[in-house]
Amino acid sequence: MSATSISADSATSLRPPAPGGTVLKSPQKGQQTKAAIVDAALGLATHIGLEGLSIGAVAEVMRMSKSGVFAHFGSREELQISVVREYHARFQDEVFSPALAAPRGLPRLQAMFHNWMQRTSIEIDSGCLYISGAVEFDDRPGPVRDTLAESVRTWLAAMTRAVEQAKQAGHLRADADEQQVAFEIHALILALHHEARFLKTPGSMARATTGFANILARYGAPEAAAAVPGQDSAPPTPAAPKKVARKRSCASSPPVSSGSPETSPPPSGAA
């Protein structure tokens, strides 16, 4: 038999047996299984919260034994942390990274808000882990809270940096307080979740878009319209896109460092 004709079963049999004669699973297979578990756990957490997660609940969804799930994480807390990291990685991929294609300054800030609104339009139905997690762990010190807080700080640092770049480009007033602008943009999203998800207030998405336009008008430089030709003061109200399930490696890639010339969040120690 040639080397190229070795079957998958034959190749598997060449792996060294574990104690007791059990064939060891490949590291790649183990990572795929762990990623699938994290994906299922994230789906649960967006509906029942991080606190509602348990090894047993995830095992039931995955149709695995509790011991099989436990072997990948070692504790319920580590499972929760892995879910937060995965949520952060997806948020970065969907909201932050695509905005880097826009020019620095107001176009990039608008792109970040637009992408954030797109994701929010989905999370009105599914829930935002950052918001629900803050409610669950705001007064509970520990690794899960630390991971959540660091993830949110990382994103807000990126938003603040985008505001700074808009000032440097002359799109916002030189005396605009970037921390205040980022605070007000963040407050818009928090209010939107409360109005749309909790109170079911009609027109909440449009109000958030108007609020963003008002922020830009309030802090915009007089010459901003000329500096950014063809740019509206606010992105269009996003339609709710279809949610696409995506599988990622459970080891989340770290964000680009704050030393990058691009608008980038500082490295998150937890994410």
Describe the structure in your own words.
The protein has 271 residues and is an all-alpha fold. The chain has a domain at 87-227: Tetracycline Repressor, domain 2, CATH 1.10.357.10. The chain has 11 helices and no strands. The chain has helices spanning 8-13, 27-48, 55-62, 66-73, 76-99, 106-126, 129-137, 143-168, 178-198, 204-219, 224-227.
What is the total tally of β strands?
0
| Annotated CATH topology of one domain | Tetracycline Repressor, domain 2
Oligomeric state, counting identical vs distinct chains: single chain
Distance between the termini: 47 Å
**CATH top-level class of one domain:** Mainly Alpha
Largest sheet: none
Count helical runs.
11
